[in-house]
Amino acid sequence: MEEAKATERKIAPTVILAEFEDAGAALHAAEKVRDAGYSRWDTHTPFPIHGMDAAMGMKDSRLGWIVIACALTGLTGAFTMMHWMNGIDYVTVVGDKPPGAPGTIPSMVPIMFELTILLSAFGAVLGMFGLNQLPRHNHPVFASDRFRAASIDRYFISIEAEDPKFDVKATREFLEGIHAAHVEVVEEEVE
Predict the structure, then answer these.
(1) Where are the beta strands (DSSP E) in 21-121?
(2) Taking 90 as the threshold, does the pLDDT of residue 4 lie above it?
(3) Percent of the chain with pLDDT over 90
(4) Is 4 inside any structural domain?
(5) Residue 5: is its pLDDT beyond 80?
(6) Contact 188, 140 (CB under 8 A)
(7) Are residues 115 and 153 in the same domain?
(8) Where are the beta strands (DSSP E) in the chain?
(9) Domain check: are 53 and 145 in the same one?
(10) Looking at the structure, do residues 67 and 155 belong to the same domain, yes or no?
(11) What pLDDT shows up at residue 186?
């Protein structure tokens, strides 16, 4: 009895994948998916399609705000560090100018620039990973044999099972109704 339970596997749908033959059809289908109220879905295309962000209802990226916050942190940190080291902790008179004099700022510019750029780069990379929920080494769409054409000449829309509106039958009928060339339910083993 226990051996039968151990070999028994539960398989559940994880994503529904709709295939389109051209960019225009995928763009119009994305608008219809957005208007239908789905929230956990994505498009997969061999090249960027102009207007797809608007068709998907995507907002502007928050990455710029992350980068500017990191840049200002680097700039402020560099100035504070040099002011503390040269003017308070270990007073250093350079070029007969006392610490904090207006003529000392130009000597700080290279360090402030470098720390601003360094923290901006870290913010851009780490922010991109965080906002894109990376690394994600496997996605359910990779289980579809037809999905390999997404990098060549096919256009796909995937709706995930975590979407609040997701219903296998209704979602499949909806995707077929927006003239998808092929609709596939991708299933995975669940625990």
Answers:
(1) 41-44
(2) no
(3) 69
(4) no
(5) no
(6) yes
(7) no
(8) 10-20, 41-44, 155-160, 182-190
(9) yes
(10) no
(11) 94
pLDDT at 96: 79
Give me the DSSP letters along 104-119: GHHHHHHHHHHHHHHH
Between CA 106 and CA 141 the distance in angstroms is 54
pTM surpassing 0.90? no
> 75 lies in a domain?
yes
Which DSSP category does 86 fall into? I
Q: How far is the C-alpha of 9 from the C-alpha of 11, rounded, in Å?
A: 6
* Structural domain total, the chain: 2
Banded model confidence at residue 104, pLDDT cuts 50, 70, 90: confident
Same domain, 79 and 67: yes
Any domain includes 79: yes
Is there a domain that residue 83 lies in? yes
Residues 48 and 77 in one domain: no
Contacts of 188 (CB under 8 A, 6+ apart): 11, 12, 14, 140, 143
Residues 61, 131: contact at Cβ < 8 Å?
yes
Q: Which domain holds residue 48?
A: 22-60+139-190
Instruction: Give 42-86 pLDDT, tens digit per residue.
Output: 999 999 999 999 999 999 999 999 999 999 999 999 999 988 888
